[in-house]
Amino acid sequence: MKAFQTICRQLRSSKGFSVEPPTRVDFSTSSYSCSRKKKVNPYDEVDQGRYSDLVQSVLSSRGLAQTPESLFEEDNLLYGPVSKCKPPKQDEAAKVPGNWCPLFNPEKSMKPNATSTPTIPLRIPLQRNTIPSVTKVLQQTMTSEQIFYLERWKQRMILELGEDGFAEYSSNIFLQGKRFHKALESILSPQGDLKERDENLESGYVESVQHILKDVSGVRALESAVQHETLKYVGLLDCVAEYQGKLCVIDWKTSEKPKPYIRNTFDNPLQVVAYVGAINNDANYSFQVQCGLIVVAYKDGSPAHPHFMDSELCSQYWAKWLLRLEEYTKKEKNQNIQKPD
């Protein structure tokens, strides 16, 4: 190595000779470093000329805006054809009932006079006859979705309680509702027993509706039957009274689950408007009702949820009730035709 450096110095000092610094060469004693090969880029081996058109078309398409059609084609290739579902059914409110009858009776006064206002609430007994009741019409015309959820709830309860347990549970629910209505009837009636009223105040359901009862006055009817003389149906309403100054058909309900919205009450609004329409077309009632009220009470005494229905909302539900009544009438006719003589 020293001899090599000496020769280089002599050549630099000689005229006419120029020696560039030698390129640095790293020596390694590692056999791995000597044997390591340089990585080869596989794309360098691709025939660029052969695929230049394809590359250009791909690059040029990036800047183009995609249209809905191109997106659908792309999704179709990636995920398969679109499975189209049936369009949703039109709302029943958009349909016009063939059995149309006005909810409000123009022959009855909207504001009852002193002579038409009973001092003692009406209690007309329900006559059992062939005319269908509001409850029966609603039960016979439930939608398939309503039937499905009702049956699923029933099966879940039977699985949890057993057949006998579920029967006992249903009986208890019925008795609790009956006692609750009896208690309210005693509280709202001017002829009610004071001792019985005090005992009823201990009920959780009654405690639940205390803030509602403060706004109820001018009771006109309690547990009284109604009949629509034109549409031919009957019912037994809970109460007709003024709520916050407006005359209403009041329907008292009990529930184990909170029902803060009127949609949680299922067919109860249809039941209320059916009673409203019946009162307005029943000669036994000299007054007319334009509003409804659904009160959902709770056993634990928590504040009940009141669902007030003004005249506009009642009119909307009235159209739906007429459709259900029309459906029931058609079913009954078809069953009568199929029955053998």
UniProtKB/TrEMBL annotation:
Q: Where in the cell is it found?
A: Mitochondrion
Output a single Gene Ontology CC term carried by this record: mitochondrion
- Chief localization: mitochondrion
Which InterPro entries does this UniProt record tie to the protein? Answer: PDDEXK-like_dom_sf (IPR011604), PDDEXK_AddAB-type (IPR038726), Restrct_endonuc-II-like (IPR011335)
Any one Gene Ontology MF annotation carried by this entry is: single-stranded DNA exodeoxyribonuclease activity
Where are the coiled-coil regions? Answer: none
Asked if DNA repair is a keyword of the record, the answer is yes
- What are the recorded Gene Ontology BP terms? mitochondrial DNA repair; mitochondrial DNA replication
Q: Which residues form the PD-(D/E)XK endonuclease-like domain?
A: 192-326
Write the record's keywords in alphabetical order, separated by commas: DNA damage, DNA repair, Exonuclease, Hydrolase, Mitochondrion, Nuclease
**Which PANTHER family does this UniProt record tie to the protein?**
MITOCHONDRIAL GENOME MAINTENANCE EXONUCLEASE 1 (PTHR31340)
Physiological role: Metal-dependent single-stranded DNA (ssDNA) exonuclease involved in mitochondrial genome maintenance. Has preference for 5'-3' exonuclease activity but is also capable of endonuclease activity on linear substrates. Necessary for maintenance of proper 7S DNA levels. Probably involved in mitochondrial DNA (mtDNA) repair, possibly via the processing of displaced DNA containing Okazaki fragments during RNA-primed DNA synthesis on the lagging strand or via processing of DNA flaps during long-patch base excision repair. Specifically binds 5-hydroxymethylcytosine (5hmC)-containing DNA in stem cells.
Similarity section: Belongs to the MGME1 family.
What is the name attached to this protein's record?
Mitochondrial genome maintenance exonuclease 1
